[in-house]
Design brief:
Histidine-containing Protein, Chain: A, 35% helix, flat
Amino acid sequence: MKNDRDLEKDIQDAFKWDHLIKNIEVTVKADEGLVTLSGVVDSYMKKLHVESITKSIDGVKAIIEHIIVNNITNTKITDEEIAKSVLNYLHQNWVPLDRIKVKVEEGHVTLDGQVTYNFQKEDAKKSVGNVKGVSMFTNNLQLVAETQDHLEKRIIEHALLRYSATVNQNIRVNVENNTITLNGTVESLYQKEEAEKIAWNAPGVLAVINELIIE
């Protein structure tokens, strides 16, 4: 197992290697695979990017994130401008605007409403991440299935076997109504999250309980 100092160095090196965040001021503290991120970035998109890169590093089991977004700009971006940009990005990403309400208060964006698929909820998060001036994001979007498809355990298990990140992992699948529960072990946080993404792609799923343990 990678020691804490080596893990911290790997994460910091990954930050420096990435052109988008190579100059950020974020400290990294590791404790047996539990990584705490602290610091300040100048956009919500960079905050998401820091989280994504950290999750991809071998040895990371969980993340505690204390990153603050401080939008440093010569011209203040108003809440109205932020709201218009959020709506524009949501439209570009095919997120159903007729079922979503956007609220912006001092740079804090909140989305309420319903979507049919989890990827739409994730795309909404990415859309907000692209908007300048956003300091905080609350995603209250709820999943409501349009179909009554019965989830089949066998289909989900076969899907996990198709991808390199999950093919050789010890993953058990349990299905109850519209909920999928993942148990077992994987080797990294990245593989744990990939397994969850694959499960979310099943038609009719409304919840994924990810109880996978990182060894």
